[in-house]
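Ticket opened by: R.M.
Priority: normal
Category: complex prediction / small molecule

The reporter submitted a protein together with beta-D-glucopyranuronic acid and asked that the result be attached to this ticket for the collaborator who will pick it up next week. Submitted input follows.
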Amino acid sequence: ENGIDAWLRYAALPCDARKAASIPAGIVALNGTETSPVYTAGQELHKGILGILHKDLAVTSTPTNGSSITIGTVNAFTSTGGALPELDLKDDGFWLSIKNDSVQIVGQNERGALYGTFQYLSMLAQGNFTEVAYESNPSAPIRWVNQWDNMDDTGTHGSIERGYAGPSIFFAEGLIVEDLTRVSQYARLMASIGLNGIIVNNVNANVNLLNSTNMAGLGRIADAMRPWGVRMGISLNFDSPRTLGKLTTADPLDEGVIQWWGDIATDLHNHVPDFAGVLVKANSESQPGPLTYNRTLADGANLFARAIKPHGDAIVMFRAFVYDNKINQTNWKADRANAAVDFFRDLDGKFDDNVVVQIKYGPIDFQVREPVSPLFGHLEQTGSVIELQVTQEYLGQQCHLVYLPPLWKTILNFDMKVDNKPSLVRDIVSGERFNQKLAGYAAVVNVGTNTSWLGSHLAMSNFYAYGRLAWEPTSDDVSILEDWTRLTFGSDRTIIDTITKMSMESWPAHENYTGNLGIQSLTDITGPHYGPKPQSQDGNGWGQWTRADATSIGMDRTVWNGTGYSGQYPPEVAAMYEDVETTPDDLLLWFHHVPYTQKLKSGKTVIQHFYDAHYDGAAVAQTFPKQWEAVKGLIDDERYDEVAFRLEYQAGHALVWRDAINNFYFNMSSIKDEQDRVGNHPWRIEAEDMELDGYTVIQVDPFETASGFH
Ligand code: BDP
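Result attached by the on-call engineer:
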């Protein structure tokens, strides 16, 4: 059990359950073309039933009136004489009916039929044989993943920006790898959770992806993913006409540039006829963009939109993550969080109809706690896509267990109250609130060659849940987790209860021991984004800025006295954040600069809350290894040991976090912990008091994380 099949293991049900199960006699997939998703669905069903029930069903493409599982599109069903009820299916939606010895899996399109098949298989794998008859439609048309894979020119495999599971499954030595087995396995995982598109290369894009060898390689990637209904797109580098095309400019209004991108689009379309679209990061973190040529971001987006328009329904995902990392933070009014709305507010209505704006869930960057990006309330004439992050860049990089759906749901369920009308983020990104045809979800996933995909078995629950939530954002985060657990580790109640309890405790615990009250992940911001380094948050353009000094802490983002950020929300929400009294405690320091002695709604002071929360969070992490022991012997040793190792590490690292942050603020504020714990661990055996072989003493940065600080 090395994790390669993730939640698609199709492990055999117990013998009694297998014997009791009644299943139709054969499989009919109403498309015999090997590259079609319906064909794929038939093969997958065969494989799954063989694994789960040890039954070897024949697969044909000829319809039958006898006992069968029939898979196909609405059209294929009706044209072969199949009787269907009145259906109201959206693109990618499906109808699933299980009755006696007849199972019907009907997709609005081929992809939908495949999704319905995976749904059926998920039931079988969980030992669920109930009769059902229902329709299921995705909440939004765009449900994509973003890979941040590099095309490094050297080395055997491409590296992955913020990837923690080894090198790329797509690229090596500046080219697309020959063996795309892992790519098609990845597409299979995506399809099983309803994901329909992928951007394969880093947003910090390498122009060499567009050379002729790689164009052909892109065609091969698309071929590998197409049978799973996954469409491929790429990130583009705005400067390509200059750097690759040797033009003198990349100005989006220049005729030569327009022509150059038009040719590229034609070339792409020739290799990938069902090309999904392009993702563009422009004028951000030193990436080139239209602002360099005094053009608007909309001019930049429309350049690509017009280039791809003649070739099918491909789209431009233009990223709202545009900010100046050289911003001068000594200016009290400067605020990186303002950037997205500042840049995009006036552009609504200026984008072509095949452009969507991809917005990170918070205004900064995937922090452990952020308010919802106010930009979701500003784009009424352009579709919005929410960008989430499965790869745990700031949240322990898969060395810490952090189950993310509770965080995501906090964002998706937030009501922006645009025009005083209910405006939940999930209804904005479904396209419903502003009546947008194109809208949806993107998540930075960054799987690598490691057989566990993400480098950690438990982290895969986040990937699984991402797909499930993009399909249906009101789904319950615990039941998603329970499904995942049953499929990944088995149905034993102890396994389910253990994983559920730890996972549901994990985000609050992580927030507690890393940075609470909206002060964000106090990590090493200019370096690897790993481990505590609160002092790196201020004094540079990348940081989150805590404005901590000897007496007070927090960013004043009010309109009346601060950076004005709270005024970017619709009036009701803005009023809530503007006032320190109505700002929820968990975002207090995001919006307000207050004394360490400020009382919270709990009655505690800010500084005492810091101390207590860090102790509480670390204490929870201490219980994880012990909790995990409950599943020993109930799951395979290989995955048991790998998870145990990580949880043990997390327990230790949570202590490092706790003490580093607490010591840092104790030093800064000189306010003692009421319980006198901070800086006071008489029972601890310090490394320098021990005699150890084979170790050298090194300087640890930041010094608060080092042993012997006191
Ligand atoms: C930050 C990452 C950086 C990405 C950037 C982005 O640290 O590696 O390039 O976001 O999303 O989270 O463009």
